[in-house]
Amino acid sequence: MALIKCPECGREISDKAEACPGCACPMSAEPDYVGREAQTTEKTSKEWKTGQLVGGGFIIVGLLSLSSGAAEGCVVFCLLGVAIIIGCKTAAWWYHG
Ligand SMILES: [Zn+2]
């Protein structure tokens, strides 16, 4: 949560507030748009990190299954892990250019 200045009275209010508590000026158009933009970026990078984690987990499971003699499972899990990581990277690139 961040504090923004009310464009009408200059009072510092929460960027989550729908209206200024001092002068009731509605906090709609611009600050809300900026907040949404930041949220989307944050969400995407979080998904990207989660995907990296999941992909890494798949690769680890694949390597573990190799040590227990399941070579086929190893290949499948490693490929899945790599695919997930590449997929997330592509998605992050797609959304952010
Ligand atoms: Zn105000």
Strand arrangement within the widest β-sheet reads 1-2
Based on CA atoms alone, the radius of gyration comes out at: 22 Å
**Helix percentage:** 55-70%
Mean pLDDT: 80
Parts with pLDDT < 50 across at least 5 consecutive residues: none
Chemical compounds bound to the protein: zinc ion
Strand content: 5-15%
Q: In this structure, how is the largest beta sheet organized?
A: 2 strands, antiparallel
- List SSEs in N-to-C order: EEHH
Sheet/helix structural class: mainly alpha
Q: Count the E strands.
A: 2
Query: So what's the overall shape?
Result: rod-shaped
Terminal Cα span: 27 Å
What does this entry show, briefly?
With 97 residues, the protein is mostly helical. The chain is 67% helix and 6% strand.
Explain what you see.
The protein has helices spanning 29-67, 71-96, and strands at residues 3-5, 12-14. Strands 1-2 form a two-stranded antiparallel ribbon. β1 and β2 form a beta hairpin. The chain starts with a strand and ends with a helix. The protein has 97 residues and is mainly alpha-helical. The protein is built from 2 helices and 2 strands. The chain is rod-shaped. The protein binds zinc ion. Residues 6, 8-9, 11, 20, 22-23, 25 line the site of zinc ion.
